[in-house]
Amino acid sequence: MKRTWPYILMVLLILAVGALAGCGEADLTKGKTAHEVLLASGETMKRINSYEFAMNMGLDMGSGSMVPFMSFAGVSEAEPPALAMTGSFSLFGQEMTLRMYLKGQKFYVLNPNDNVWLLYEGAAIPDDLLAMGPGTMLEGLENAVSAVYVNDANVDKTMKVIEATVTGQDLIDAVGGTLEGLATFDTMTLRAEISKKDLLIHRLVITVTGGDAGLGLTVNMEIDMRLSRFGEVTVTVPQEVINKAIPVTESGGL
Fold first, then answer.
1. Contacts of 32 (CB under 8 A, 6+ apart)
2. How much is the pTM?
3. Percent of the chain beyond pLDDT 90?
């Protein structure tokens, strides 16, 4: 599990920090292949500066069924990079709460062990990771992904549902070395519900299979993210958090 954990956090940050956008009333998906719509959505998504998100994550450590692992909700801004996120996760049978704020190059996180705010600065989060949003990721899949339309009776007809599949190595080749650890995963399947009128993604489900969790175990992972309030929200780090946060060099970290 130690090998997999950093890459899970990277995927969560990539999804949370990236920007999405769009405008228009016509069916912008009309006459386009699923692949073309996915790439056009990636470009559109990069142009909005903020959104609200709710995200659930499950893990299958070889049991054959997904077990709820993390649940988060928050607000993200693109420029400058900013994030406010609150949620809970299960670790070794214990339920823990996590709160964090990202503003520019400052990353505040509440230590769940003692409820002390910690501050990571500068190199704590790579610049190329901060700059990479869902739009950048989708654009990078141009030569690596095969995409198809999915008929889903449970989805609002104002949406197009697209499924795309890529290997971990293909994803690394497409978007760069930041995600190098994803090479341990066999396949990533992305399911996107894209608005016909503006190409915004309102729901994104990512399923990753065949990850190396160590000790001879493989891990399958599913992230289900819903997006809303595009361009309507902002991130503010509470002054109380700023005042109480201890630099990680002083605290020793989590």
1. 40
2. 0.76
3. 24
Question: Which has the minimum average pLDDT: 51-55, 67-71, 101-105, 229-233?
Answer: 67-71
Beta strands 116-121; 246-247: pairing state:
parallel
**pLDDT tens-digit profile of 77-93?**
887 778 899 998 776 67
CA distance 76 to 236: 10
What is the C-alpha separation between 39 and 35, in angstroms, rounded? 6
Q: Judge whether 76 and 19 are in contact, CB under 8 Å.
A: yes
Tokens encoding 239? 């002054």
Within 8-145, strands assigned E span 50-60, 67-77, 82-91, 94-103, 106-111, 116-121
Question: Which of these, 67, 66, 71, 69, lies nearest to 56 by C-alpha position?
Answer: 71
Residues 6+ apart with CB under 8 A from 123: none
